[in-house]
Amino acid sequence: MEGVDGSNSGTKAMIRLENLTKTFPGQTEPAVEDLSMEIYEGEIVVFVGPSGCGKTTTMKMINRIIEPSGGRIFLNDEDVTTTNSDKLRRRIGYVIQQIGLFPHMTIADNIATVPKMLGWDKKRISERTDELLETVGMDRSYRDRYPKELSGGQRQRVGVARAMAADPPIMLMDEPFGAVDPITRERLQDEFLRLQEEIKKTIVFVTHDIDEAIKMGDRIAILREKSVIAQYDTPERILTDPADEYVENFIGAGASLKRLSLSKVRDIKTSEWPVARLTDSPDEVKELLRKSGKDYVLLLDEDRKPKRWVGLEELELNGVPLRNAGWPAVAIVEGKSSLYETLDTMITSYKGSAIVVDDRGRYESIVDFGTVLQAIEEMRPEENRVGGGA
Amino acid sequence: MNSMGFFEYLASRWDDLLELSIEHAQVVLISLLVATAIGVTLGVLTYRRPAAAQAVLAVASAILTVPSFALFGLLIPILGLGYTPTVVALSCYAVLSILRNTITGLQSVDPAVTESAKGMGLSDWQQLFKIEMPLAWPVIIAGIRVSALLILGIAAIAAYVNGPGLGGDIFSGLSRIGGANSLNLVLGGFLGIIVLALVFEVLFALLGRLTTSRGLN
């Protein structure tokens, strides 16, 4: 398959599209032309492209809301191109931008739609409904409410819960977070990514927003006109090694900065830095500083939380306790922060470096500009590296 | 020629009037049932095909323009007199607004709702009965209500073909106007129809509320 590297050799294709084509009645040009691709089990694959490129049409052919004019669709190696479409759809979760909750049914009845069709017994449906409401972070008291009584974000959550009701292995999501405000959208995205960690569904996600694609996708398919794949790869590779000018243009300005949001500070090599305790004597600290060859020492408290930066000058001032010497230690990031956030923090700090701590605020390491620049350099494909000896 | 006062008249004949009113209501209800069956069926069959929907609406509208006297008269050679031509004629008049509201109601269901229903694997029939009909129902029942009022009045004309109901009184009163109690006969018939109209309104409002999901109000 185009652009797919060997990193997924152990994973199996959950969805396979073969030469998929759609020409709408009355049109001469196909909306989707001869598309072939594999989507791997447990991954979020994002279709992204300009409006009218056929990404939604492609997605809707997977559950045959739109019947393909040519080509084949395989789910788990089973050819579903001509099977009973209603039965097929019950196996695939479906979330659209407008959500489309049934306004005349309660939240519980909305969620129970597919399980009821599949003939689950009442007790099982009821338990599943409670479980799903909890999963999407809603109180059980919402069971008997109606969609009109919910906020946009809550409806979206119910939409996702409803799509997951019968635990389908595959979910199709068409701009699922497109209709909510930016703050809610970000929260829903984060929640969904956390949820996906647990449920590990195979998800096809359509968006026109490259930033959402980078955030949500394990793999991104950048599509051009007629749903032709421009590049199908991990977000990291798309950002660092765009296949052509079209992809570059689509990613837009700031690709390198976007790339930084995909790496965690914990994963890059951090530099050695002298650290001392607040309880150490100034002379010990001076000695440490001299040996390290750096200008400043980081002082930690008894819980190993970073407290102060001190330089030689401050240590020379006799009588000032270490507790008050130098500057307070600011510019602290957690190890799980992205390089983007780290760099942002660094720029605002006066030493051009950031302190990395663990989730309980204990010192882990120091990163500075040099380290980040080196990490960026290493992200580039080898042939493009500046000093890579290519 | 000493005619009774209207209230005196009512007091002496209220049991007859009640019986006639019940007959009147009955023939209207039966006609409504027939018209609902026809209107909803035609609506369901045509709402996804604009040309077909236009065609059936045009026919139903054309029927409504036929004067009721003429229609009743036309039916005599085919169906004779009495109950049958009354029900047939009233049903014809009642179809239009039920049909129109069925089509409008079904067409105005949010496309996102039908798409998500389809996407979840509801069959065409399940979509119609579980999703589209319940959502269109408040509009459909409003159509039935309008038809009910319309044919409550027209039903009086059915006396012309010997139909049941309050029309008989009105006709016989009008035919010998000036005679003893003739005005009372007419007014009694009118009053019966007005009371029936009010009763129907209340019942339909109640029925609408009982059969419409709380989520739609």
From TrEMBL, chain A:
<dbReference type="GO" id="GO:0015418">
    <property type="term" value="F:ABC-type quaternary ammonium compound transporting activity"/>
</dbReference>
<dbReference type="InterPro" id="IPR003439">
    <property type="entry name" value="ABC_transporter-like_ATP-bd"/>
</dbReference>
<dbReference type="InterPro" id="IPR003593">
    <property type="entry name" value="AAA+_ATPase"/>
</dbReference>
<dbReference type="GO" id="GO:0016887">
    <property type="term" value="F:ATP hydrolysis activity"/>
</dbReference>
<dbReference type="GO" id="GO:0005524">
    <property type="term" value="F:ATP binding"/>
</dbReference>
<dbReference type="InterPro" id="IPR017871">
    <property type="entry name" value="ABC_transporter-like_CS"/>
</dbReference>
<dbReference type="InterPro" id="IPR005892">
    <property type="entry name" value="Gly-betaine_transp_ATP-bd"/>
</dbReference>
<dbReference type="GO" id="GO:0016020">
    <property type="term" value="C:membrane"/>
</dbReference>
<keyword id="KW-0547">Nucleotide-binding</keyword>
<keyword id="KW-0813">Transport</keyword>
<dbReference type="Pfam" id="PF00005">
    <property type="entry name" value="ABC_tran"/>
</dbReference>
<protein>
    <recommendedName>
        <fullName>ABC-type quaternary amine transporter</fullName>
        <ecNumber>7.6.2.9</ecNumber>
    </recommendedName>
</protein>
<dbReference type="GO" id="GO:0031460">
    <property type="term" value="P:glycine betaine transport"/>
</dbReference>
<dbReference type="InterPro" id="IPR027417">
    <property type="entry name" value="P-loop_NTPase"/>
</dbReference>
<keyword id="KW-0677">Repeat</keyword>
<comment type="similarity">
    <text>Belongs to the ABC transporter superfamily.</text>
</comment>
<feature type="domain" description="ABC transporter">
    <location>
        <begin position="15"/>
        <end position="250"/>
    </location>
</feature>
<keyword id="KW-0067">ATP-binding</keyword>
<dbReference type="InterPro" id="IPR046342">
    <property type="entry name" value="CBS_dom_sf"/>
</dbReference>
